[in-house]
Specification:
237 residues, alpha+beta, Structural Genomics Hypothetical 15.5 Kd Protein In mrcA-pckA Intergenic Region, Chain A, Alpha-Beta Plaits, 3 domains, four-stranded antiparallel beta sheet, 6 helices, 17 strands
Length: 237
């Protein structure tokens, strides 16, 4: 029996874009199914001929997920900005179109995922699934007092609203580990600044169950099927 999949998911599995972006691509009229324009992202596909911008798609490609230790100065986008290197370029042997999962600002280092699996990318980044991300922050402002840790744990009032409670651990007098379930822009930096401890160095050390470990800066590794399924299961809990 031939498997049936919705059109937007089919495009995502072909490496065209994330599932959310693929939905908009279909609605914009760029996709044809068996020669006819198709505007419904939920259209079920089995073995029909699917074209994007007039070019036929070869079908779903093998789905892969890479863990990468992002160095400072590299941007976590698929395309460079002002000549800056991108995380995608660090996996230079890969011919499939990869997308970063969960952005890090240019100055932040550490664990970032890259994949051509649009469905998994959405599961890991959508706010409703609350997949945990853990950061290690070196901060200024002197030794971090218990009161500052308590404020971070309970949530901080930022200009875009209060943060959710976080798990915080003191590693050294000026180093904290903080686990959050949100994905706001520069969130950890803003939280620490709000309690009087501006971040001087920030590294993401864990994404869900996946740990950065001893992966060198700039290096990457392909996740095993078991690791991918564990991430997928965490997002669906």
């Amino acid at each position: 029996m031939v498997a049936t999949v919705r059109l937007a998911k089919y495009l995502a599995h072909c490496g065209v874009a994330s599932r959310r972006a693929a939905t908009e691509i279909v609605r914009s009229g760029r996709v044809r199914v068996d020669g006819a324009a198709e505007l419904d992202p939920a259209r079920e596909i089995t073995n029909q001929r699917v074209e994007l911008d007039g070019a036929p798609l070869a079908g779903p490609e093998e789905l892969v997920v890479y863990a990468l230790n992002k160095p400072a100065g590299v941007v976590s986008t698929a395309r460079g900005q002002n000549g800056r290197a991108t995380v995608v370029e660090l996996i230079d042997h890969e011919t499939r179109r990869l997308y970063p999962v969960g952005r890090l600002d240019a100055a932040t280092t550490g664990l970032i995922l890259l994949t051509n699996d649009g469905e998994l990318a959405n599961l890991l980044t959508h706010p409703r699934y609350e997949v945990a991300k853990t950061y290690r922050a070196r901060v200024g402002g002197g030794p971090v007092a218990h009161g500052a840790l308590t404020k971070l744990e309970r949530g901080i009032e930022l200009d875009d609203g209060p943060t959710a409670p976080a798990q915080v651990r003191l590693i050294a007098p000026n180093v904290i580990e903080i686990e959050i379930h949100e994905g706001r822009n520069r969130q950890v930096r803003r939280m620490c600044e709000a309690v009087g401890h501006p971040v001087t160095a920030l590294e993401r050390v864990r994404f869900g169950s996946l740990e950065l470990g001893r992966l060198p800066a700039g290096a990457h590794r392909l996740l095993s099927p078991a690791e991918v399924e564990q991430l997928r299961a965490q997002a669906r809990r």
